[in-house]
Amino acid sequence: QVQLVESGGGLVQAGGSLRLSCAASGSTFSDYTIGWVRQAPGKEREFVAHISWSGGSTYYTDSVKGRFTISRDNAKNTAYLQRNNLKPEDTAVYFCAADTRTTLRIGEYDYWGQGTQVTVSS
Fold first, then answer.
1. pLDDT score at 6
2. What is the separation of C-alpha 8 from the centre of its chain, rounded to a whole number of angstroms?
3. Averaged pLDDT of the chain
4. Cβ(2)–Cβ(110) under 8 Å?
5. Which site from 56, 58, 64, 113 is most exposed, i.e. has the minimal number of CB atoms within 10 Å?
């Protein structure tokens, strides 16, 4: 098993940048692919980005392409989501999730963090 803790959320103005971190413990971090998922108030959870075991492959949903960057540092057992040019519609609770497989479906992830709130003001 692996435990995940998100951090780095907060309030930022539209057009600003913010980096989220996902710290892992309990298992070998490089055994897991990492996804970022967000949930806005009153909305269902939305898949945002994914990164492979060593970071060689990444995936982004269309709404964040060119603005968000997912990365990982396996030596630090941490994954990141760098968000640039933030928009009010990016306001949500952001979760990191892990699985030993390549997983792009929210329901397929086995491990989840508790989430961190990001608010983007207009």
1. 97
2. 11
3. 96
4. no
5. 56
Q: What is the pLDDT of residues 63-109, one digit of tens each?
A: 999 999 999 999 999 999 999 999 999 999 999 999 999 888 999 99
Q: Which two tokens stand for residue 117?
A: 């709130």
Cβ atoms 51, 108 nearer than 8 A: no
**Three-state SS across the chain?**
CCEEEEECCEEEECCCCEEEEEEEECCCHHHCEEEEEEECCCCCCEEEEEECCCCCCEEECHHHCCCEEEEEEHHHCEEEEEECCCCHHHCEEEEEEEECCCCCCHHHCCEECCCEEEEEEC
Per-residue pLDDT tens digits for 31-72:
999 999 999 999 999 999 999 999 999 999 999 999 999 999
Residues linked to residue 80 through DSSP beta bridges, in sequence order? 21, 71
Rg (CA), the chain: 13
CA-nearest of 58, 64, 71 to 86 is: 64
